[in-house]
Structure formats: C-alpha cells, structure tokens
Amino acid sequence: MRIISIANQKGGCGKTTTAINLSSSLALNGRKVLLVDLDPQAHASLGLNVQSQHSIYNVISRIAPRKLSLEQIIVRVQGQFDLAPSNVLSGTLEQELADEIGRELKLTTILSGLKGYDYVIIDCPPNLGFLTINALRASSEVIIPVEASRFSMQGVERLIDIIQLVKDRLNHAIEYRVLVTMFDSRLRHSFDMLEKIRTDFARNLLGTIIHVNVKLKECVANGSTVDAFDKYCRGAKDYYSLAKELITMEKKPAEVSFSPLSTQMKQVVKEKVKDLISTTFSFVAPEAQSVYVAGDFNNWYIDESSRLQKNGDRWQTKFDLKPGVYQYRFIVDGQWQEDPRNPRCIKNIFGDSNSIIEVKA
Ligand SMILES: Nc1ncnc2c1ncn2[C@@H]1O[C@H](COP(=O)(O)OP(=O)(O)O)[C@@H](O)[C@H]1O
Ligand SMILES: [Mg+2]
C-alpha cells in the first residue's frame, strides 16, 4: 500500500484538486484508492458532495462522544475510489493532539490496520500543525503542489525542513516530489517560473504539469471529479497522466523487464513502433534558458517530454510519430513562435503562424 500526502502549507495551490482527481484517476487505472480528507475545512469531502455526520475526527479523537474505526466512516465515491471524510470538528484535533503523548503517530497507527487498498491519498490542511505532521509520518511519499504563477521557494523550503525533521526525529524516510499546478502556457511568466522550479528541485520534480483548466473549478460546484464531469478536458488528461506517472514508479525497471507481461508488452510496442518515424525538432538559440515544442502530435502539451535538450547552440528533441502532417510551434523562454527554419506554415486562430511538418513513411 502506497501512502501519499498532498501537502503545502500555502492555501490555494491545488492540494485538494490534486487529491481528488489523482485519487479518481488512480482508481480509473484499476487501483483501489482511499482518499483521507484531513483538512477541517473539508473541501475534498464537499467537492465530492459528501456531507457526513461522522468523519476522521471520530477516528482520531480520544474524546469524541462517538468513537469509530476508520472502516466505519469510509464512504464509496465511485468504483474503486473511497473517501474518509472530514468535517468542521476535525479543527479541534490540533488542540487535542497538542497535549497527547505519541501525537505524531496517531494516523500511522490507524492506517497500519487498513487492508484492501493500493493507494491512500491524504489531503492535508494548509498549515504545518499536528495533522500535517501526522500525515507526513504516515506517508512514504509527499506530493507538494506549487502554483506556477505564485511560486515561492521560501514556503516550500519550510515544508522540506519539516519533512527532514520527521525523517531525523521520528526516524521515518519520506520521498517528496514537486508538482507544478495551474500552469498557464500563454504566459511567459509561467515559463520563467517553471525554469526556476526546475533549477531548484531538479530530480524531485514530477514530469507531469497540471495546466490551468476551468473544468477543474467547475466540477467542484458539481460535486464530482473532473473525469466524471468532462473526461476529455485538459484537466482530466493532466491528472490521468499524473496517475500514470505514479503507477510507472510502482515497479523498479528490473522487475518490469523480467515479468512475462513485459515480454508481451515489448512485442506490442515493437509492432507499433515499426510504423513510427523518429522525428527531430531542433531550434538554434544559444542564449535561451528553455525551449519546448508543442503541436497537434502531443496535444499542444507542455511537460517534461516536450522540453528540448541543449547541445551547444542548438536545442533538440525527438518524437516517434506516425506518418502524417502536423502543426507545431516552439516556446522559447515562454514566447510562442514558429520554426524560423521552416518555410511551411499556416495561420492559426490567434492570427499567428503554426509551422507544418510532414512525416513520411
Ligand atoms: N489546474 C487548475 N486550473 C484552474 N483552477 C484550479 C486548478 N487547480 C485548482 N484550481 C482552483 O483553485 C482553487 C484552489 O485550489 P485547491 O485545490 O482548493 O487548493 P488547496 O487545497 O491547496 O487550498 C480552487 O478554486 C480550485 O478549483
Ligand atoms: Mg484544500
């Protein structure tokens, strides 16, 4: 069972949106998931239209009039996706835990008896109090959402200090990964921030980027996950990619390549790949800090896979593409532009030009 906290003491950076939609995407990928709403504001519970009389408060509190087990409060959301809801009473837990011995271990003990789940996702409150410490202590991994436009290193550093403290004082190792949220690919500022986040976190940055998408806001008012609201929107696709990224970490590469399934997979990939043509995109920009390529072949997505690597003056990357005609643009230090070396282009709806490439068999 993988236990992952979604934490950042900053409010409004996308914790709850990530907790809900990552949980449902993992469930869509066949994983059995429990989302634990640990925030007294109960945004995850409300966002899923669950208003329960009983909550995580009844499980954690020693003085609750009605003491319940975790299993007793769990509510089915959809398919393989369950929720342990929160409500306003959880707000009293900070005070109660302050006076208790072993207060950091309460959630660890509660989750240690839980069976039948592949993933537990914990939505943390926007502070570094005892509830968040409990979540960190119970988790093997933490996802730290950072909002691309309002990224502040200071806040994240404080959280990483706390993770380090849990590691040293409570003798518990946790891996943390930063997730870029609310990325607006129309703004140059977003790319500047993305570069800064990449420099600061390097190996601890998740490859998936969550773009700004209004459907992620609208689905909350509807009390549903984004995939149930509009499974084709960008928000649903981004969280699906995030689930896939986490799932690929489940097995170490060695285990994957020796399993019988993998031999079969290799065959399938081989058959598919023979129709794909390795296509290089390159851009000369010695002074640039970052270059991405986005086109209809990658759904105009900006993420780690669309970033070009610098080699001398030239930036380049390869995509395996089916034969066909594709439109694309480069994003150089956040500025969208056509390929200056390619005369073939077409006007797009914004009045700019998309470059055109033809991939031949
Ligand atoms: N990728 C996104 N695109 C658009 N709006 C978003 C996105 N992620 C979150 N939001 C909105 O931003 C607000 C804060 O997000 P939320 O997930 O509640 O943050 P937190 O739990 O960290 O306080 C909410 O109104 C949410 O609907
Ligand atoms: Mg929240």
Overview of this protein structure:
The chain has helices spanning 15-28, 43-47, 56-60, 70-73, 93-98, 106-112, 130-138, 153-169, 188-201, 214-221, 226-229, 234-248, 253-258, 260-273; strands at 2-6, 33-37, 75-78, 81-84, 119-123, 141-147, 175-183, 205-211, 277-284, 291-295, 309-311, 314-321, 324-332, 335-337, 345-347, 353-359. The relative contact order is 0.12. The N and C termini lie far apart (45 Å). Helices cover 35% and strands 25% of the residues. The chain is α/β, with parallel strands linked by helices and 361 residues long. It is built from 14 helices and 16 strands. The radius of gyration is 22 Å and the shape is elongated. A hairpin with a 2-residue loop joins strand 13 (324-332) and strand 14. The chain has an 8-stranded mixed β-sheet with strand order 3-4-2-5-1-6-7-8, with helices on both faces. Strands 10, 13, 14, 15 and 16 form a 5-stranded antiparallel β-sheet that branches. It has 2 domains: 2-253, P-loop containing nucleotide triphosphate hydrolases (Rossmann fold, 3-Layer(aba) Sandwich); 273-359, Immunoglobulins (Immunoglobulin-like, Sandwich), CATH 2.60.40. The model is unreliable at 253-260 (pLDDT under 50). The site of magnesium ion (MG) has 4 residues, from helix 1. The site of adenosine-5'-diphosphate (ADP) has 18 residues, from helix 1, strand 7 and helix 10.
